[in-house]
């Protein structure tokens, strides 16, 4: 049975930070993507991850994207993805790895995806988006069973990955069967009224609208999920909260904006989260 995803998820997931805490308690996030053509995709994911409060954010990308990344987000660290050894070292150190936004499908991109998947271990979370999903479908790459995996396809990507064609994607039974077959722990099937499927849990988002139909909207969501999973307990609930917040913010911004630029969402995240659970010390 599909249940409506409601605002309660935010209060459940977004927890006030203990005063004595430090950056190592909020996730060591690695974002891999952004070739020469699609640098913006990984930059938008990075903005969302940084804005969500992730403890440490590192971006492995094509070297042309590193200066733009630092101009937009000096908080993020950067690696040239041609240095495979250094990238894999960072994969091993990370709590959450997002791969796919703007990754492309070159031979190098395929090899980077394969080696990233091989390097990951039980206590880490892997988020697969965009080009990573296309490569998995095209090259029949197996998703590792020993890593907690979240996949965030739009309907076109899900059709390619699961062979469930778009008109049949209303069937949660079919989607969930394919989710399990593909070794995906949490499936975020993105559309108008996104659904989130995981073991014994099916949630549907009833927020959001066509003002979100613009390039980069999914890249921003992927970065937000990475940031939430890195800093809040329980990756399924953290994913659901990120999906809810992303569209709730878009809906709020759409009251005064014809379309909602994905970067505006990232900029608005800290303010939105503070309204859920403020980090200000309590007053006696
Ligand atoms: N500024 C940037 O650098 C951007 C880069 N992007 C990157 O571009 C690469 C290709 O991603 P795309 O998703 O554009 O293209 P793809 O070509 O992978 O997928 C789009 C295909 O799926 C079909 N489709 C069916 N349902 C769809 C739906 N609900 N939403 C979108 N397409 C649907 C389309 O007709 C099209 O054939 C990815 O790596 C992505 O991250 C995009 O995210 C856009 C912004
Ligand atoms: N008409 C719509 N109603 C609600 N949400 C939408 C609509 N169109 C797009 N979205 C949302 O925008 C995002 C688009 O993701 P995606 O297609 O991966 O974008 P991109 O790859 O360009 O970043 C998803 O979260 C999707 O649910
Ligand atoms: Mg996308």
UniProtKB/TrEMBL annotation:
One of its GO terms (biological process) is metabolite repair. It catalyses: (6S)-NADHX + ADP = AMP + phosphate + NADH + H(+); (6S)-NADPHX + ADP = AMP + phosphate + NADPH + H(+). GO terms for molecular function: ADP-dependent NAD(P)H-hydrate dehydratase activity; ATP binding; NAD(P)HX epimerase activity. Its cofactor is Mg(2+). Residues 6-276 form the YjeF C-terminal domain. AMP binds at residues 190-194, 218. (6S)-NADPHX binds at residues 41, 102, 154, 219. It holds the Pfam family Carb_kinase. Keywords: ATP-binding, Lyase, NAD, NADP, Nucleotide-binding. The keyword ATP-binding applies. Its EC number is 4.2.1.136. NCBIfam families: yjeF_cterm. Belongs to the NnrD/CARKD family. Catalyzes the dehydration of the S-form of NAD(P)HX at the expense of ADP, which is converted to AMP. Together with NAD(P)HX epimerase, which catalyzes the epimerization of the S- and R-forms, the enzyme allows the repair of both epimers of NAD(P)HX, a damaged form of NAD(P)H that is a result of enzymatic or heat-dependent hydration. Homotetramer. This is ADP-dependent (S)-NAD(P)H-hydrate dehydratase. It comes from Weissella coleopterorum. The gene is nnrD.
């Amino acid at each position: 049975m599909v249940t409506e995803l409601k605002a309660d998820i935010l209060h459940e997931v977004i927890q006030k930070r203990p005063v004595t805490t430090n950056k190592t308690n909020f996730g060591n996030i690695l974002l891999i993507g952004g070739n020469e053509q699609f640098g913006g995709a990984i930059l938008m994911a990075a903005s969302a991850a940084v804005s969500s409060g992730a403890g440490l954010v590192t971006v492995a990308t094509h070297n042309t994207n590193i200066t733009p990344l630092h101009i937009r987000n000096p908080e993020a660290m950067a690696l040239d993805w041609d240095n495979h050894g250094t990238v894999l070292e960072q994969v091993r150190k990370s709590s959450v790895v997002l791969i796919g936004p703007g990754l492309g499908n070159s031979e190098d991109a395929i090899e980077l995806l394969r080696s990233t998947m091989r390097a990951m271990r039980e206590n880490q979370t892997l988020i697969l988006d965009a080009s990573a999903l296309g490569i998995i479908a095209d090259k029949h790459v197996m998703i590792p069973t020993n890593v907690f995996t979240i996949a965030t396809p739009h309907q076109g990507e899900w059709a390619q990955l699961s062979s469930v064609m778009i008109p049949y994607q209303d069937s949660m039974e079919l989607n969930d069967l394919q989710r399990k077959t593909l070794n995906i722990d949490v499936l975020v099937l993105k559309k108008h009224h996104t659904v989130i499927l995981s073991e014994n849990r099916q949630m549907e988002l009833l927020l959001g609208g066509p003002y979100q139909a613009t390039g980069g909207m999914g890249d921003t969501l992927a970065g937000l999920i990475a940031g939430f999973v890195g800093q809040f307990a329980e990756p399924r609930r953290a994913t659901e909260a990120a999906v809810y917040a992303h569209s709730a913010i878009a809906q709020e911004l759409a009251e005064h904006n014809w379309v909602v630029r994905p970067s505006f969402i990232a900029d608005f995240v800290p303010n939105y989260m503070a309204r859920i659970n403020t980090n200000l010390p309590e007053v006696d």
